[in-house]
């Protein structure tokens, strides 16, 4: 496992190094003296922070599916605090950290593991369907992809793969739940977390759009296409073992995707700027999470309602 993580880290860094080499000579000039630049960057930062809050609320809804009740803000703090650990090489420290926080708050290990698996399944399923669906719905995006990458980039596999992925994850989750002796949830109960994660990706897409407007206003790419690009990059970065916070993979795919619409230098500039905003946003929401943990009362620990 350690070798796999090291290999993943090396591949991620090597991938972004190639992207930097190709675009570094044509980086756009950021107009730091223009108020509009700071307004766009500030909006991008605010939207990114909002996306983390939405993700934290989605985590609470996951626990509630298992009948877990925690004081207001406590479940949200578990995700907000642990997310900072995703920058530790290995790309799993934030999950381990959240598991430890939830366990310390009185939730049994079986429920935590099942809830986290459910979250991963919903995230990857929503991400795959959202990116594939947007790609098929945006004619201009499809035209650029066909021109640059060929028909295979927008073929039936674009939709088939997400469907198969969701089927595998749902079957695995049902097996785990039944082995744990817990009742199977109703499909309707998944509407809320699915809606929250869909909103989360949309907010992240608009965050990226704000950064594009700050770095390269003439980019010519809209929020929907940016949401599709970001979602593909996020899923790839999440799945890559060893890449801390998806660094290298996510940024490289963002730069490649944006490069379909703008120069390589401008695309690299946007990817780097958005990574800086995301890192700052994670630090901010980490502080929010710490504050919530200090202010919430967990003397009674978690309770399971069924």
Write up what this structure looks like:
45% of the residues are buried. The model has no long low-confidence stretch (mean pLDDT 77). The protein is globular, with a radius of gyration of 20 Å. It has helices at 2-23, 35-65, 74-82, 93-104, 109-137, 139-149, 157-179, 191-215, 223-239, 249-258, 264-295; strands at residues 68-69, 303-304. The chain starts with a helix and ends with a strand. It has one domain (47-292). The longest helix has 32 residues, at 264-295. Helix content is 72%, strand content 1%. The protein has a two-stranded antiparallel sheet. The protein has 306 residues and is an all-alpha fold. Helix 4 (93-104) packs across helix 5 and helix 10 (249-258) packs across helix 11 (264-295).
Structural class: mainly alpha
Largest sheet: 2 strands, antiparallel
Strand order of the largest sheet: 1-2
Radius of gyration: 20 Å
Q: Averaged pLDDT, please? A: 77
Helical amount: over 70%
Which descriptor suits the 3D outline? globular
Number of strands: 2
Measured distance between first and last alpha carbons: 37 Å
Strand proportion: under 5%
Written as H for each helix and E for each strand, in order along the chain, the element string is: HHEHHHHHHHHHE
Tally of DSSP helical segments = 11
Uncertain segments: none
Number of domains: 1
């Amino acid at each position: 496992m350690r070798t796999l993580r090291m290999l993943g880290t090396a591949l991620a860094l090597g991938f972004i190094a190639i992207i930097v080499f190709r675009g570094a000579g044509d980086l756009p000039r950021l107009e730091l003296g223009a108020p509009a630049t700071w307004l766009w960057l500030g909006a991008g930062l605010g939207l990114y922070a909002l996306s983390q809050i939405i993700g934290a609320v989605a985590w609470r809804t996951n626990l509630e599916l298992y009948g877990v009740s925690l004081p207001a803000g406590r479940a949200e703090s578990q995700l907000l605090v642990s997310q900072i650990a995703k920058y530790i090489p290995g790309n799993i420290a934030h999950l381990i950290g959240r598991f430890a926080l939830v366990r310390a708050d009185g939730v049994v290990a079986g429920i935590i593991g099942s809830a986290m698996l459910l979250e991963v399944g919903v995230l990857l399923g929503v991400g795959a369907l959202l990116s594939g669906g947007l790609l098929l719905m945006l004619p201009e995006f499809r035209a650029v992809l066909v021109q640059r990458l060929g028909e295979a980039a927008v073929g039936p596999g674009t939709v088939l793969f997400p469907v198969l992925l969701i089927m595998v994850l749902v079957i695995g989750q049902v097996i785990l739940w039944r082995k744990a002796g817990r009742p199977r949830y109703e499909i309707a109960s998944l509407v809320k977390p699915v809606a929250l994660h869909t909103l989360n990706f949309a907010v992240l897409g608009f965050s990226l759009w704000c950064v594009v407007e700050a770095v390269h206003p003439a980019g010519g790419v809209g929020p929907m296409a940016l949401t599709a690009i970001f979602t593909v990059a996020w899923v790839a970065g999440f799945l890559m073992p060893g890449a801390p916070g998806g660094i290298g993979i996510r940024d490289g795919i963002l730069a490649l995707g944006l490069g379909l619409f703008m120069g390589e230098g401008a695309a690299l500039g946007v990817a780097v700027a958005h990574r800086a905003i995301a890192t700052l946003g994670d630090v901010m929401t980490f502080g929010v999470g710490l504050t919530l943990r200090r202010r919430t009362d967990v003397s009674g620990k978690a309770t399971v309602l069924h």
